[in-house]
Design brief:
Thrombin, subunit H, 217 residues, 6-stranded antiparallel barrel, 17% helix, 2 domains, 7-stranded antiparallel sheet, alpha+beta, 33% strand
Length: 217
């Protein structure tokens, strides 16, 4: 009986020793960070849908919203322009044609003669809340696709327009850039023209307004 017990004990020790000698896989070696990422996790190639718009001597941004070359941007960038030059991330240059304008929401839709598979997905306005991160894609330089992480300070309605207020001001040349979630979907469009002028914050028009505008509402 004692010999059988000793064998079982030795077998158990050998089993425990074999477990201690195993190496953990890399993903199990340390817990995953729960902090917010510095860039959206599902951007893919959609950054190629960002464009630079030059009109009336002003430069701003815009982004392609479908495969037909439809671009969302700001009213103040293209209003009354006799010529709208659109430069894509790949270096192509097109003349843009105005489809629709809305001064009160500072929104504009323009068209370029180019079909593309690289466009942004419009997200759900209810998917973001105060205190969460959003990412502004764009930059003051031509064809810049810099990502800036910012925090939503407030969700506001000003003069009937739903706005996203963030903790950083919007550079005029960065107007028209998309506000992106961590999943890479659009929840707003940057506009330095929207919001009170005395605020040291930035504002974007909510994707709720943008969707309505695109559909003609």
């Amino acid at each position: 009986m004692k010999e059988g017990k000793d064998q079982r004990i030795r077998a158990l020790k050998d089993h425990l020793r074999s477990l201690s000698d195993r190496k953990l896989p890399p993903e199990a070696a340390a817990p995953a960070s729960e902090s917010a990422p510095d860039t959206p996790s599902s951007m893919g190639d959609t950054a190629a849908g960002l464009v630079t718009i030059t009109a009336n001597g002003k430069t701003g941004k815009g982004f392609i919203v479908d495969g037909e070359g439809t671009i969302a941007t700001n009213f103040h960038i293209v209003n009354s322009a006799s010529r709208i030059k659109v430069s894509t991330a790949s270096g192509d240059v097109f003349l843009g044609k105005i489809i629709r304008l809305d001064e009160s929401r500072d929104l504009a839709l323009i068209q370029i003669p180019a079909k593309t598979a690289q466009y942004f997905i419009l997200g759900d306005a209810s998917s973001v809340d105060v205190g969460e991160n959003v990412f502004v894609l764009g930059g003051p330089s031509s064809n810049s696709s810099e990502l800036t992480k910012t925090i939503i300070n407030a969700l506001r309605v000003i003069e009937g327009t739903v706005l996203i207020q963030v903790d950083q001001q919007i550079d005029p040349a960065n107007s028209g850039s998309p506000f992106l979630t961590e999943q890479g979907t659009v929840v707003g469009i940057a506009s330095y023209k929207m919001g009170p002028e005395d605020y040291s914050a930035g504002f974007g028009v909510s994707v709720k307004e943008l969707k309505a505008f695109i559909s003609g509402q």
